[in-house]
Amino acid sequence: MTMNATAPASARNAASALEPGTPGASPRAGVPRPKRTPARRASVFLSTHPRTRLALLLAAPLFWLGIVYIVALVLLLVTAFWSVDSFTGEITQEWTLDNIVTVLTGSLYQTVTLRTVGVALLVTIIDVAFALPIAFFMAKVASRRMQRILLIAVLTPLWASYLVKAYAWRSVLSQDGIWEWLVAPFGGSTPGYGLPATIITLAYLWLPYVILPIYAGLERVPDSLLEASADLGGKTWPTLRHVVLPLTMPAIIAGTIFSFSLSLGDYITVNIVGGANQMLGNLVYTNVGAANNLPLAAAIALIPIAIIFGYLFLVRRTGALDNL
Amino acid sequence: MRLSRLSRTTLGVVTALILVIVYVPLFVVLVNSFSTSTSLTWPPPGFTLEWWQKAFQSAGAMEAVLTSVQIAIIATLVSLALGTLISLALQRFDFFGRDAISLLVILPIALPGIITGIALNNFFRTIMGVPLSIWTVVIAHATFCIVTVFNNVIARLRRMGTSLEEASADLGAGVWTTFRLVTFPQLRSALLAGGLLAFALSFDEIIVTTFTAGSGVTTLPIFILNNMFRPNQAPIVSVIAVVLVLVSIIPIYLAQRLSSDTEQKAP
């Protein structure tokens, strides 16, 4: 921003244009000459030193995010290489690969990792399958008025509490809940609490996060392209496949980043509707709390971090990251 | 591409069905809060206001509301200050590392809550040796609330342009005066919207909270979680859940209206 740096000069020019004989010497008509207070001097200094201004603006937020967040994340990585004295329960700050080896080779961790990734993948597939038609309807079929209403209808549950939504599914899926009541006449029954319930609930929780980027992506596909395709004889499906899908792919992938990474780290939903099943998050939580083994918890937490960064790395060339 | 009437109708029906699925569970919670059954039975055998009365008389629930409000207010104020500073820096300046900083702002909400949670837990307890308290929750919440303020303020700054600020500077106003009289009034509604979103986000956050709250700190979501598995507490939990939805949706609704002309992004 160069505007403030040049401001005093242009102010002087304006003054001298008004009173050509006395450039800057006499007070301008109606505008009192600013007093030379320390605040004024600081202000002048700042407006001629944009870098200082930038540094002052950035200092507090960077201090906060840097210290509280980045340092914490890095230290989490470091902690994974420490251990806990099994006798005193204190953390020993000596480098060891034990936790990493335990996590990589322990059959419990392998099973739970596979289960968690499987759940996250299924949740993502379900969400995309649900989000595509609703996003398409919102962006390309609905009238402007309808579009606004639908957007609010989709956004409102996004803001309802995570916990309330998980609890709502606990009610829906309970032994004499509404699901049982609805399907019992047809010989069905509620899936009860378990992995299917976890998948349903997680898919429900993240659905708005998937709909929104896909909707925004479809909105950006100009109608003229669809018309051009139709004029050239393109039927609905070929147009969808060759025009709409390639253009919205980054947005779809952006949506999958949300559902995939949020599912990977979840542990409360599986507590509420998952029965006795464990996901990676549960193992982390148990080791932070009851088992009091932070280094092991940190090592387990590295699994979802590695998977998420791997996924981000895979999709970085699709432009999905700009659609978040 | 011209969609046939049939495919338009099909899409419409599918959309309607999905919205029904989205709303039914929330509706069930609402109805359950008036049900005479204590075990989430559907259809409700009868209706009563007993649970609403009990919930409002429950000292634990009221205390939890108070704790949540306190945390949300302080976290919102901190995130308003930090979010405004960082959006001014990122929108008005071009410098090396700008993209990295904008990623840094989004990171606390982009990474799963459990990672933010355990990182902060580890940072406070192991590294700093600070016992978990209400303040550790505030710090954690402020960290991920910055992004909602940031999104709102930077969108507004982008739309505002710099011409009014330049005019102000040309007329001799200093840096502070320009901010106070020109920039801030234009940012006001964006700040309010961002602040409301931050408040709602903090008010019902659970995952990071479970990792950063001291043993004596019970926020409303923690209260729900603690009581959910207790026999016969289900109706009271439903009442609190309904209250939680209302408390978070009203500010969100206001925020959406305030920033309806700004490009809104989901955090």
Per-chain topology:
The complex is a heterodimer of chains A (324) and B (267).
Chain A: H1 3-18, H2 38-48, H3 50-79, E1 83-84, E2 91-92, H4 98-105, H5 107-141, H6 144-159, H7 162-173, H8 178-183, H9 195-219, H10 223-231, H11 236-264, H12 268-273, H13 280-288, H14 294-315
Antiparallel strand pairs in A: 1-2
Chain B: H1 5-32, H2 50-57, H3 59-92, H4 98-110, H5 113-128, H6 134-160, H7 163-170, H8 175-203, H9 207-212, H10 220-228, H11 234-258
List keywords for this structure.
heterodimer, A: 324 residues, mainly alpha, MetI-like fold, two-stranded antiparallel sheet, 2 strands, globular, B: 267 residues, 11 helices, disordered C terminus
Mean pLDDT of chain B: 85
- CATH topology term of the domain at 101-323 in chain A: MetI-like fold
Oligomer: heterodimer
H/E order of the elements of chain A?
Answer: HHHEEHHHHHHHHHHH
Provide the number of structural domains of chain B.
Answer: 1
Mean pLDDT of chain A, as a whole number?
Answer: 82
Give the CA-based shape of chain B: globular
Number of helices of chain B: 11
From the coordinates shown, what is the CATH architecture of the domain at 101-323 in chain A? Orthogonal Bundle
> How many strands appear in the DSSP assignment of chain A?
2
Biggest sheet layout of chain B: none
Q: Can you tell me the residue ranges of chain B where pLDDT is under 50 for at least 5 consecutive residues?
A: 262-267
CATH topology of chain B: MetI-like fold
Termini Cα gap of chain A = 27 Å
Question: How does this structure look, described?
Answer:
The complex is a heterodimer of chains A (324) and B (267). Chain A is mainly alpha-helical and 324 residues long. Chain A has a domain at 101-323: MetI-like (MetI-like fold). Chain A is built from 14 helices and two strands, in the order H-H-H-E-E-H-H-H-H-H-H-H-H-H-H-H. In chain A, a hairpin with a 6-residue loop joins strand 1 (83-84) and strand 2. The two termini of chain A are 27 Å apart. By secondary structure, chain B is mostly helical. Chain B has a single domain, classed as MetI-like fold (Orthogonal Bundle). Chain B is globular, with a radius of gyration of 23 Å. Residues 262-267 of chain B have low confidence and may be disordered. Classes of the chains: A mainly alpha (324), B mainly alpha (267). The interface between A and B is large, with 109 and 98 residues. Chain B: One of its GO terms (biological process) is transmembrane transport. Chain B: InterPro entries: Bact_Polyamine_Transport (IPR051789), MetI-like (IPR000515), MetI-like_sf (IPR035906). Chain B: It is a multi-pass membrane protein.
